[in-house]
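Hi, here's the filled form for the chain we discussed.

Project: internal
Contact: R.S.
Residues: 135
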Amino acid sequence: MSEDRTRIVEQLAHVASALDRRDYAFLMATFTEDAVGYGKTGPDAIVAQVRAHLGGVGPTQHLLGNHRVTVDGDEARSLTYARVHHVGAGPMEGEFFECLGEYDDRWRRTPDGWKLHRRRFDMQIMLGDFAVLRP
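And the returned structure, exactly as it came back:
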């Protein structure tokens, strides 16, 4: 297993954990300045979009697996299965939303390590109430 692959898989785990801990500063630092993710461009807009979905949600768990990573010089692509469980909070207490799908991530090597340049989530299965996701 290549060192680059290992670092990217580790970074994916850190991103999942940051989402669950709502560590928005870490997430901000994970993206390149011109990154595109969650339908937004740039770290500020991407993290604002994440906050719009997770800000009013109870505990979450981003469970990742089946990593496929290809590295080409200073660029890489990872395809990662994800099962994400969201617990409802406030007016959505007692509800849940769970989605299963695949992250398609593009990475760039920077002086600070591998950073996300593009992130897309292909949601293939949805269970529960999508309204659980709220600011």
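Let me know if anything looks off before we file it.
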